[in-house]
């Protein structure tokens, strides 16, 4: 695989990042994952805008412009013959001469930029037909989940807790209400109404979430943005998740309780279909 590191396209085995890089030492970095369908980028603008916001919130500079980022994404797709999968992008506050809590001066220490591709079956993912199971866990992350940082230890632990319990993923709960999945936004459907937590610093503002809610409204579906409990979710007609690489994926079990009829719901599957259709059409 050819990856991008600070201006160069290199074979992954030759890619180098300093041991002093603050992404490595302090999780001082932000990231994005953009999906690729038919060799084209899905909602690149949405991901680029969120990246700029994450950088601004952390007072971090980007080493390249958005236009340059688009070119790098496209070049990696080309060099790796990627037809379907994702492109991971990471910007960190670079590698100062020593480890220090204070941020380095960006004029002296440039940010690091790394991108790589991951080939994956997205549109025909088996989980879309079987549905996934989730467990609930406490949300122990920091309070700025709206910033897409590389601090992913707790979500990784959540995934492992789910695996241990024989489930696929974990929904995190704070003050009795679901925030989101370890790497996705969470939804339920009740009486035809789609319910998902409102935007705030408590959750990541999913790019897929924004597109799916817009498409739902365009299809005359009712949407309510509010928190919900695990008990309410277990009693719902349907549940599902969204993210750049899962699109819309039905949830059929929550903490061992079957949701609805225990199979992918009608609304989740419809949203998945219209989301994938639109994404194919609009991808660049
Ligand atoms: N919530 C969290 C915590 C995530 O990590 C992600 C994606 O990685 C999402 C939600 C979904 O965001 P998006 O639709 O932009 O992929």
Automatic annotation (TrEMBL):
One of its GO terms (molecular function) is branched-chain-amino-acid transaminase activity. Pathway: Amino-acid biosynthesis; L-leucine biosynthesis; L-leucine from 3-methyl-2-oxobutanoate: step 4/4; Amino-acid biosynthesis; L-valine biosynthesis; L-valine from pyruvate: step 4/4; Amino-acid biosynthesis; L-isoleucine biosynthesis; L-isoleucine from 2-oxobutanoate: step 4/4. The keyword Protein biosynthesis does not apply. One of its GO terms (biological process) is amino acid biosynthetic process. It comes from the Bacteria. InterPro entries: Aminotrans_IV, Aminotrans_IV_CS, Aminotransferase-like, BCAT-like_C, BCAT-like_N, Class-IV_PLP-Dep_Aminotrnsfr. Its cofactor is pyridoxal 5'-phosphate. One of its GO terms (cellular component) is cytosol. Acts on leucine, isoleucine and valine. This is Probable branched-chain-amino-acid aminotransferase. It comes from Primorskyibacter flagellatus.
